[in-house]
């Protein structure tokens, strides 16, 4: 990380757009990594990566779009992820902690309701919804990307819609490994990588995935991922802390302008993402017809044009 930021200990010093922000918790103070690109007084976008436990790196495709749209944007690695401080305390791997972390990051970056747009992708979408439910007074606009408002509904969709699309023999082998809880078996990852990821995560052969995506997957904090999401790639399994998360009933309380982004081939149900937009008092929906869960790559133009249009429209 030394190439990215000043290690002088001064967290108020920006180096190459990077700022390490101190985050206060009941277990001490940690530092999280952010990087600013661009400069605009009214259009400042904070990006919440997915996982949980992934990194900002897969969002680097934004570099080809947001600067041309005069949108100031911030990469950010959540605590325990990427360039931020490590965290081995499972009590900090929670929605409650990360909501408060985002609020401390917002304050440190000087973002306010006059300029603050929040984009959460996948798990980041859960975090963005939760942040809006508690702190929407600080938001100018909200973007929920490739995330439905209910984990139980996501699990049902994965099992009843997506799984049957796989070759029956492949699905049977995957299910057998899951029933045996043999998630560390190399065959499990091989089957998922060869048959599921290229259909619903990023629609191209995995050996052709963009370098930032591969880098992000290589840097995934697996412990955080399993604790919150579980080991299965078909929904959320085991004792994962997100297993029962559902905010459908609370959507009407989010008053700020909100864009819900869905993709036709996503791991998430695009119809529910459209339904979510209708439930939000000031919601709108963007469909990426060629996209999957990482529509910022496999339907890139539609994805980024839609975000830019939304931000400019709110402004």
Notable characteristics:
10 helices, 315 residues, alpha/beta, globular, Rossmann fold
Structural class comes to alpha/beta
The major beta sheet can be summarized as: 8 strands, mixed
What is the CATH H-level superfamily of one domain? Answer: Alpha/Beta hydrolase fold, catalytic domain
At CATH level 3, the topology of one domain is Rossmann fold
Mean pLDDT: 93
Strand percentage lies at 15-25%
Strand order of the largest sheet: 1-2-4-3-5-6-7-8
CATH-derived architecture of one domain: 3-Layer(aba) Sandwich
* Rg: 19 Å
Rounded to the nearest angstrom, the distance between the terminal CA atoms is 35 Å
CATH class descriptor of one domain: Alpha Beta
Proportion in helices: 25-40%
Q: How is the quaternary structure best described?
A: single chain
> What's the number of extended β-strand segments?
8
* N-to-C SSE string, H for helix and E for strand: EEEEHEHEHHHHHEHEHH
Low-confidence stretches: 1-12
- How many alpha or pi helices? 10
The best one-word shape is: globular
Please explain how this structure is put together:
The chain has 315 residues and is α/β, with parallel strands linked by helices. The protein has a domain at 18-152 and 243-314: Alpha/Beta hydrolase fold, catalytic domain (Rossmann fold), CATH 3.40.50.1820. It is built from 10 helices and 8 strands. It has helices at 95-109, 123-135, 151-162, 168-179, 186-200, 211-218, 222-228, 270-279, 295-298, 300-314, and strands at 18-25, 28-37, 44-48, 72-77, 116-121, 141-145, 258-263, 283-288. It has an 8-stranded mixed β-sheet, sandwiched between helices. Helix 1 crosses helix 2 and helix 4 crosses helix 5. The longest helix is centred in the first third of the chain and has 15 residues, at 95-109. The protein is globular, with a radius of gyration of 19 Å. The two termini are 35 Å apart. The model is unreliable at 1-12 (pLDDT under 50).
């Amino acid at each position: 990380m030394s190439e990215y930021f000043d290690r002088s200990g001064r967290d108020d010093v920006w180096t190459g757009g990077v700022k390490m922000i101190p985050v206060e918790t009941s277990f001490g103070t940690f530092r999280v990594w952010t990087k600013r690109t661009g400069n605009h007084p009214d259009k400042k976008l904070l990006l919440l990566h997915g996982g949980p436990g992934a990194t900002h790196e897969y969002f680097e495709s934004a570099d080809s779009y947001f600067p041309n749209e005069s949108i100031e944007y911030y990469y950010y690695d959540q605590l325990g992820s990427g360039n931020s401080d490590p965290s081995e305390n499972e009590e900090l791997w929670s929605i409650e902690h990360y909501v408060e972390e985002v609020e401390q990051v917002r304050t440190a970056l000087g973002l306010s309701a006059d300029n603050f747009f929040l984009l959460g992708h996948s798990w980041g979408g859960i975090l963005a919804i939760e942040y809006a439910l508690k702190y929407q007074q600080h938001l100018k606009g909200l973007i929920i990307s490739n995330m439905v408002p209910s984990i139980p509904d996501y699990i049902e969709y994965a099992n009843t819609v997506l799984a049957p699309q796989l070759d029956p023999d492949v699905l049977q082998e995957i299910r057998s490994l899951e029933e045996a809880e043999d998630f560390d078996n190399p065959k499990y990852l091989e089957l998922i990588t060869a048959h599921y990821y290229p259909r619903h995560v990023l629609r191209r052969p995995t050996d052709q995935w963009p370098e930032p995506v591969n880098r992000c997957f290589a840097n995934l904090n697996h412990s955080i991922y399993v604790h919150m999401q579980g080991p299965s790639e078909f929904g959320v399994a085991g004792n994962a802390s997100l297993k029962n998360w559902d905010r459908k009933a609370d959507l009407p309380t989010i008053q700020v302008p909100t864009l819900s982004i869905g993709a036709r081939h996503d791991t998430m149900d695009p119809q529910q993402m459209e339904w979510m937009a209708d439930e939000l008092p000031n919601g709108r929906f963007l469909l990426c017809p060629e996209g999957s869960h990482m529509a910022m790559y496999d339907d890139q133009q539609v994805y980024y044009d839609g975000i830019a249009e939304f931000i400019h429209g709110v402004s």
